[in-house]
Amino acid sequence: MHDADKILLPRWTIPVAGGKNSDPATVLEDHAVVIVGDRIAEAGARSEVLGAWESAEMVELDDHVLIPGLVNAHTHAAMTLLRGFADDLPLMRWLSEYIWPTEARCVDRDYVAVGTDLAMLEMIRGGTTCFQDMYFFPDTVAARAEAAGMRATVGMIAIEFPTAWAATPEEYIEKGLETRDALRHSRLVNAAFAPHAPYTVSDKTLEKIATLAEELDCQVHMHVHETEHEISESIARFGVRPLERLDQLGLVSPRLAAVHMTQLLDMEIESVASHGISVIHCPQSNLKLASGMCRVADLLRADVNVAIGTDGASSNNDLDMLSEMQTASLLAKGIAGDPYAMNAAQSLWAATMGGARALGMEDRIGSIEPGKFADLVAIDLSVARSLPVYHPLSQVVYGCAGDQVSHVWIGGCQVLDSGSFTRLEKDRVLADASQWGLKIARQPPSSGT
Fold this sequence. Notes:
Number of strands: 19
Structural class: alpha/beta
Oligomer: single chain
Shape: globular
Strand content: 15-25%
Distance between the termini: 65 Å
Number of helices: 15
Largest sheet: 9 strands, mixed
Helix content: 25-40%
C-alpha cells in the first residue's frame, strides 16, 4: 500500500484530459483522486485506488462532481473595488472619463491589496483556482495571492502614461522584471508581460517587450482587437490593423494571449491559428460594453486555443467563471446560428485546459491527471437547480451557480471547505472593501454618472 495525504471520493469526475473536442459524455463515475503533497498522484476507479492507497483523510463527496480548478485567464483583480461604479457606457468613454481618472486618484498599494483579496474571495468561492491578472503593483497582487494560497500569473503592465506604479515605459518594464525575478522560486505565482493594448503602447515599447519575451521565453498578455474604434484608429495612425502591427513588431507568436478579439476577419483567424496565438474570450464584459462579439465557433473550427476570462468586475460585474462558461457557450451558438457551437465540453475545456495553455502552464494545471498540481474543485449537484442530473458536464456548464462550489484545493491545500474559507479572512476582506467603497464614492469623477 502507498501512503497518500488525502483521497477524494466524488460521485462524478470530469478529468478534462482528452483534448478540447472530447466527448461531453466523458464523465467518470465512482472514481477516486489521490493527492500526495501538492500533486495528483493517481486518478482511477475507486476500488483500484483504495486497494493500492491508504490515507488518514478520505473526503467523501457523495453528491458532487469533481472538476479541474477553473482558470480565469483575464482579470484586473483589484478593480473589484470599482464594481458597478460606471455602468452602461461604451469602452473608451468608460475608460477615459471614469476609470482612468478614478484610478489616478485612488490606486495605491492598499487599494490593490484590498481589491485583490476581494477578487480572490469571489473567485475561490466560484471554483477558480488560478487567475491571470493585468494591473498596477503586480508585486502586491503576487503577495496577496501567495498569502491566500491562490495560483496566479501577474502582469508586468506596460502603458505609455504615468501612474502610481511607474512613470515611464522603461520604468514599467524594469519594475515588472524585478517582480518576475522575485517570483522565480514561487510555486504559486509567476509573471507575464502585460502591455495594455496596441492603442496605449508605442512601437518602441512593444518591440522591447517582444525582444524580452523571446529572450526569457515569457508569455505576453494583451488586449487586442477589442472594439471597432480600435481598428479604425490603428488604420488611421499606423496604416494597418492592430494584429498586423503586432506581427510587424515581433509579438505574434504562441506566447501571445490576445484578449477579447471581437473584430476578426477570416484571414486574421487563419493567422491566429497558424501562429499558435491563444484567444481569451470575455463574453460578458464584451456584451456589457457593447464592444463586439468574438467569433468563437470559427476560432474553434480553425483549431485556435480559446480560453475564458471574466475581465475586471468593473465591466462584468462579477468574476464568476461558471456563469462565464454558460454565456460563452450560449453566445457562440447565437452568433453562429448553430446549437452545436461551443458545446459544454468545449466550454469547460476553454475554462480549464484552454486557460492553462494560454498561460503556458498546460503541463502543470488544467486537468485531473497524475503529475499535475492538485488544483481541484467539487461542485454540489444535489441542490434544486441541478436536479435531476442526466449529464453532469452539461449541468456544470449550463446550470450551476458559484454557491454550489463546496470544496476547493490549490496545490493540494484546501482553501474552501464546505463553503468556508480556510485562509482568506472573509470578514476582514469585506470590511476593508466596504471602507474603500466609501472612500471612492466621496471622490466621484467630475462628469458624474
